[in-house]
């Protein structure tokens, strides 16, 4: 009888120890993001991980995946088990919604504040020190002899923002319309030396490989290049650009499978917290929090911005017209290559 009791007690203690060990084991958590957010989420994950462990006792094993936003969306569609997606534009998350059952709510942008965009950015020009080609606005980038670096809109979210900012500028010129805007954008791609698959690849081509005279860049990418090599580059802010709103979403089917729904909700909500907004600002993303934005007024100067909704009718309409197969971008590429 005593032997049985000892055996049962030992088994019970082992079960408790095993259970405690399982509870203490770090939980895996995957954020699938776009190309230039590597530094942002390195900093954010450290801050959120400390906050979450203090709040819940749960340790997180963060995993990050970065690449061109369109390619990242395709990876999730094809089976990459993201807990959350933090992509460059709404149409990439719409693609996940439209092609899978991974995100249950078709109105996913209503799940978090500001249409589920906790920070914003815009498009600027990065030029070499001294601005040797005297690039001051959009019209200057298609002058003879100017070589442009911008990513491929078929795979990169940042590239689509670049394209639309250029289109909008041309349309807003005297006598501008969609026909003149299309011709200007055609010239932009005629002057483009390299079409990388993502924004970070384009930055590498311009900054490290020394190719091109001007990089059409996310504002945060341009500032990062200046921070790392202040004596080599300058930022030129065009007269008109676009309000880039990179959105976030929970991937419902995956978080339910992984048991990470509460974690995912907390993670994305933390982006809107004062701490999260401060981290965004320090990584050169424009915070939504007005108080945090005011602290960085010398970095984030006011500029004239158009929006995707007012200028182009929203992302669903724009994606179909400009970037889907046989859309305007494909037609421009064919025209420039002499195939149309």
UniProtKB/TrEMBL annotation:
Entry's Gene Ontology BP terms: sulfate transmembrane transport
Compartments it resides in: Periplasm
Keyword Glycoprotein included in the entry's annotation: no
Main subcellular localisation: periplasm
SUPFAM superfamilies with a match to the protein in the record: Periplasmic binding protein-like II (SSF53850)
GO molecular function: molecular carrier activity; sulfur compound binding
Secretion signal, residue range per the UniProt entry: 1-24
UniProt keyword annotations, A-Z: Periplasm, Signal, Transport
Any single GO CC term annotated in Swiss-Prot or TrEMBL for this entry: periplasmic space
Pfam families named in the record: SBP_bac_11 (PF13531)
Family: Belongs to the prokaryotic sulfate-binding protein family.
Protein's recorded name: ABC transporter permease
Organism: Alkanindiges hydrocarboniclasticus
Phylogenetic placement of the source organism: Bacteria, Pseudomonadati, Pseudomonadota, Gammaproteobacteria, Moraxellales
